[in-house]
Request: fold
Amino acid sequence: MPEQLSNAQPHQGPHAYCSTCGAPYATGPSTGTAAATGTGPSTATATATGPATAAPAWPRTCASCGTTAYRNPLPVAVTLLPVEDAEGTGLVVITRAIEPALGGTALPGGFIDFGEDWRDAVVRELREETGITAPASEVTLADALSSPAGHLLLFGLLPLRPTATLPAPAPTHETTGWHILRTPAELAFPLHTQAAASWFAGRYTP
Reply:
């Protein structure tokens, strides 16, 4: 009797292999149900040799060694720095000089380093992207929002600062400089837009 072949195909993409034994995670033909089951948008991909296949959901169990792998959200620190001058109040924002969202306007922010306190990450990202310094002890948690991409964004709020006390805007290796957002606007990332709108609406207080 000929050997019966499986419909499963190796998953191609990030996290495609078991970190314990190196075996590929197998997938079957895409059913288009990933989004409906709460695992997020379908990551189905078509190949030249067959129909589209969907990446296995998390957690994943390796068919070769039986190890179960989990994917945890990546923490991101984002800075809300209110400022005030003769024109009124606003938030410090940056223009991105790197991908993703090259050329877009965003709040200062980035990934939290391993072992780093999230408040230290808030002021570090602010300093790296704007040259503005602030003590981590002044950071309060304004919001925590989850993105569909698997990131957990922690929005740290700093006290209101006079614009005149801040260093002049200057390019960094990640930005073309900082400026002031005076009114709610669509930013480069949806959760940044949401958090900025919440601040302008008075929903965040120190």
Remarks:
- Residues 118 and 153 are 10 Å apart (CA to CA).
- The longest strand covers residues 88-96.
